[in-house]
Amino acid sequence: MMSAERPQDRSQVALSRRNAQDRTIALVLAGLVLLLPPIGAIALLDANVFGLPLPLVYVFTVWALLIGAAALLARPLQDRSDASEPVPDLPRQAD
Amino acid sequence: MLSINLLVIACLAYVTLLFAIAFVVDRRTRQKPIGWLQSPVVYTLSISVYCTAWTFYGAVGSAARNGLEFITIYLGPTLVFIGWWWLLRKLVRIGRAHRITSIADLISSRYGKSSSLAVLVTIIALIATTPYIALQLQSITRSYQVIVGNTNGVQTAFWIAAGLALFTILFGTRTLDANERHHGVVAAIAFEAVVKLVALLAVGIFATWGIAGGLTNVFADVSPEAIRGANDIFGARWVTLTFLSATAIICLPRQFQVTVVENIEERHLSTASWLFPLYLMGMTLFIMPIALVGLKVMPAGSNPDLFVLTLPLSQGRDDLALLAFLGGFSSATSMVIVAAIAVSTMVSNHIVMPIAMRVLARDHAVSGDVRNLLLTARRISIAAVLALGFLYFYISGGSDALAAIGLIAFVGVAQFLPSILGGLFWRGATRAGALAGLIAGFLLWAYTLFLPSFGGDFILSASVLKNGAFGIEALRPQALLGLAGLDPIVHAVVWSVGANALLFVIVSSLTQSNDIERFQGALFVDVYRSAGGAPVGFSIGTAQSEDLFVLAQRILGSDPARRLFDEMAGAQGVSGLPHPTDAVITRLERELSGSIGAASAHAMVTRIAGQQTVGMSELFDIADETQRLMETTRQLGEKSVELEQAAEQLRDANVQLQELDKQKDDFLSQVSHELRTPMTSIRSFSDILLNEADLTEQERSRFLSIIQEESVRLTRLLDEILDIGRLESGTVKLDLAEVDLGQAIESAIATMTGMTRDEGVTLRTNGAPSGTHVRADADRLRQVLINLLSNAVKHNLLDEKEIDIEVGERGGQVFVDVIDNGGGVSPEDAQTAFEKFARGSRAAAQGAGLGLPISRAIMRAMGGDLTVEFTDGNTSFFRVHLVQGAA
After folding, report:
1. Count of alpha carbons within 13 Å of B866, Cβ hemisphere only?
2. What are the φ/ψ torsions at residue B188 (nearest 5 degrees)?
3. Where is average pLDDT lowest: B178-187, B560-569, B667-676?
4. Least enclosed by CB within 10 Å: which of A5, B231, B611, B752?
5. CB–CB of B386/B165 below 8 Å?
6. Do B836 and B849 contact (CB within 8 A), yes or no?
């Protein structure tokens, strides 16, 4: 697969990797801001969304969005072949 | 009513299934790695050991009492996993590179393989984990009692603990896996993760749609306070709990074990980054509904902690109840197993092994296999950890206080956070700082949270709790230094983690790390940079390969040790045992540390192989020495080059001297030759005069005049030789003045009148413009001109001789050309004309041949020159160069 990569492909991958890296920081910060006071306290309003209490809906919605975004970001970061090969188990003595 | 028999059978079947899974997977992976087992999904599921019985049962209880607050326990890990790239990845990378076996190993290894830190972390982990295990035992016991009725809880708990010990020993210590990986256990845990998720979802769906009839029904006429809970959500406690859960997902020993130690591929983290939060969301999705439905449906006063089980039971759904029971069982047992493995690893590596080594070192002969000792130590540790958990449960009598233990344990392991974060990102973090922070944090945690949790029954009496130690109000455990009004958890976190972090930073910045610390620090912080993160060994010394081999055999086992040493020997291209190079020693230390921890491995190799570690400062000295040597070598190199050049110059000078020597010899021989000729004449004629008796008067006077002429010639020759000698050495004094050129030429012509008249030479001159002055010595100039004129006459072979004297001027120089119609000198003669004793081919052999050299020397001494100029190939003339005078 590597041989079919053109230099532009590799730079594209690198760029998307860099973007994904930065976006994970943004994602964590967004999560922190949205889920913690003071911003999160907005969800304390006693309203009902589709018959469900707002705080509940708010937390779970934000949570779901964070997970979705993380899933999207995982792909470009996964391709980063920085990760070393699996460290194999050392040969063990037969029991 | 669920029959006891059915329950027991189901339990046993389930347990057997777990054993079977673990066994099969273990055996299969021993032969070759199973593909799907190495998938990121299994890895993620194993991380879900985070959800213990506390999640399965306790979350509903918390939701019923405190509303949405329970969700913070799962938001923290979500945030950490989303940001995996920055923290988790580095942890995993370091763990793999340095074969870290536990969280105590990580901290100890980072701070210079410090044993004291390892022991401290182990103790804290043990203290925090024991109640947690007790809580799991309590959950299983209670849930069992719910279904079966009031039985002897203690007995149940005991059998459960024993069974878990058996499982853990069997599958956690089959061999001393040098990577501390337990594939069978991981597989069983992953399976249990699925079971508990399915169970909780099933009960949740049942509660929502089976009982309440829809989500909106669940939340219909639910007061906002029910959601907000007793402690306000989104307040200080909310933040603290989120922070604590985020910390726990890293610092809990069982979490570190599954996330870092059992990690097979770093890439799996990227999947876990979203899959694990998704799992958490799945687990917690129906917690609130179950709690609310339970509150509505169940009789008042029933324990909300057990709604997950009692709700289906109350509705006659025995099948669901069984599933719920198994789910709770799974949650509890997976926690206990992994925690037991993690803590027992720490205990055996950092407490038992060092003690054993100290004991064994006394008698030199190490009786029996060190490896067997290790395995035994590990197994005993597992049993001990579980025994402690059981004891704790027994003593606490199943009180409700146990429920709070989860958060207390969180705060306890949160004490590791400053050392870990600092160790990972701050090279300046020192062991002293970590120690100071840990000790302070631990003590404050114990004082503000752990001991008070016993309600005044253990160490801290009730009066101390109320009025502070020694009656000092400022030392009240839950309102230290007057910080009252805070939730106890928040209060404890602020004090313990705050003081921990503060002391860590301050003491680190005030202390110096020693060599190993600094080295390890660089390796850890820069783990992405070091290729493969292989630590370079600095041990030098006289390690014997055989000693090392024996050591490796004892710990790794003979086959693995042999394979390892074969590989290392092969890399060196050596048959037999490899040479104990630094690389070999380092590699061996690394492989050993996978079994017994870095600190023990290092100490063992050092002691048994008798090595000294070269300190960083000594290294720097060596480096300096080398630098100086290199500098000296460089300077020597330069000197040598200079010497070369000097020798070269000397050689050239020598050659020149030899040249000059030869020239001098030539000159001397020529001079002697020249002198001999007239001397011979003088002698021979003197001889005749003396010895011949009958000579006429005429003959006599003729011979005498010849003698006189020759004497004169000889004298003149000697004068010329002296002259040219003086001229060439520059010792002759020229009387330079402004000389009228026209007068000089006239004077020379006048002197030559006799010769020119005799030879019939026509002498013409274009005459110098009157008033042309040159800077010259008048007499010497005349001498030169006369010399040239006489040469022109003598070397002219024609009968009608004509000589022209032309004066020219160009660019500050004055030229006097002496042109004779005989063609001047030939091209061949021109080359040698100015050499001493050269006579030329057209010469009528007269004169010593010193005239031209002398003339040229004179001209050069006057700042001018004497040259031969060619008008065409064969015709030439002599040119006198003169410096123009001022006038």
Report:
1. 24
2. -65, -40
3. B178-187
4. A5
5. yes
6. yes
Q: At what angle do helices B115-148 and B370-396 cross, to 10 degrees?
A: 50
Determine how β-strand B737-740 pairs with β-strand B761-765. Answer: unpaired
Nearest-Cα residue of chain A relative to residue B221: A51
Angle at B329 between CA B326 and CA B333, to 5 degrees: 140
Name the phi and psi angles at B613, rounded to 5: -90, 130
A interface test, pick of B234, B263, B555 with most A CB neighbours within 10 Å: B234
Instruction: Please give the residue of chain A at the shortest CA–CA distance from B179.
Output: A89
Q: Helix H segments across B177-232?
A: 183-205, 215-219, 224-228
Enter the DSSP assignment of B286.
T
Q: What is the mean pLDDT of the segment spanning B73-78? A: 94
Q: Residue B457 in 3-state DSSP? A: strand
* ipTM for the assembly: 0.82
A33 reaches B (C-beta below 8 A) = no
**Mind telling me how many Å the CA of A18 is from chain B's nearest CA?**
11
Give counts: helices (H), strands (E), chain B: 36, 11
Classified as helix, coil or strand, A49 is strand
Chain B residues with beta carbon closer than 8 angstroms to that of A36: 234, 238-239, 242
Residue of B nearest to A61 (CA): B281
For residue B784, how many other CB atoms are within 10 A of its CB? 30
The predicted-structure confidence for B833-858, as pLDDT tens digits, reads as follows 787 776 665 554 556 677 888 888 88
Are A93 and B559 a contacting pair, CB within 8 Å? Answer: yes
Token pair, residue B433, equals: 């700082």
Helix (H) or strand (E) holding A59: helix A54-78
Residue B75 near chain A (CB below 8 Å) = yes
pLDDT for the residue B726: 84
- Nearest residue to B167 via CA among B11, B16, B372, B54: B16
With a CB cutoff of 8 Å and minimum separation 6, the contacts of B422 are B429, B433, B434, B504, B505, B508
Cis peptide before B769 (omega within 30 of 0): no
Strands B761-765 and B801-810 turn out to be: parallel
**Is A32 part of the contact surface with chain B (CB cutoff 8 Å)?**
yes
CB-closest option in A40, A43, A86 to B264: A86
Nearest-Å Rg of the Cα atoms of chain B is 56
Q: Name every chain A residue with its beta carbon within 8 A of the beta carbon of B267.
A: 78, 83
State the Cα–Cα distance between residues B284 and B291, nearest whole angstrom: 11
B174, B273, B288 ranked by CB distance to A74: nearest: B273
Label residue B588 exposed, middle or buried (CB < 10 Å: 0-12, 13-18, 19+): buried
Give tens-digit pLDDT for B803-813: 888 888 888 88
Q: Compute the half-sphere exposure of residue B640: CA atoms within 13 Å on the CB side of its CA.
A: 6
pLDDT above 90 covers a percentage of chain B that reads 27
Q: Nearest CB to A37: which of B86, B222, B239?
A: B239
Cross-chain residue pair B281–A63, CB shorter than 8 Å: yes
Asked if B531 contacts B449 with a C-beta cutoff of 8 angstroms, the reply is no
- A64 interfacial to chain B (CB closer than 8 Å): yes
Q: What rounded mean pLDDT belongs to chain B?
A: 83
Tokens of B69: 């607050």
Q: Which residues, including other chains, have CB under 8 Å from residue A88's CB and lie 6 or more apart?
A: B33
Nearest to B25 by CA among B4, B46, B11: B46
pTM of the model: 0.64
Sort residue B189 into left (φ over 0), alpha (ψ -120 to 50) or beta: alpha
Looking at the DSSP assignment, which residues form a beta bridge with residue B879? Answer: B817, B867
Chain B contact set for A85 (CB, 8 A): 265
Q: Give the span between the Cα atoms of B581 and B693, in whole angstroms.
A: 111
* Secondary structure (3-state) at B775: strand
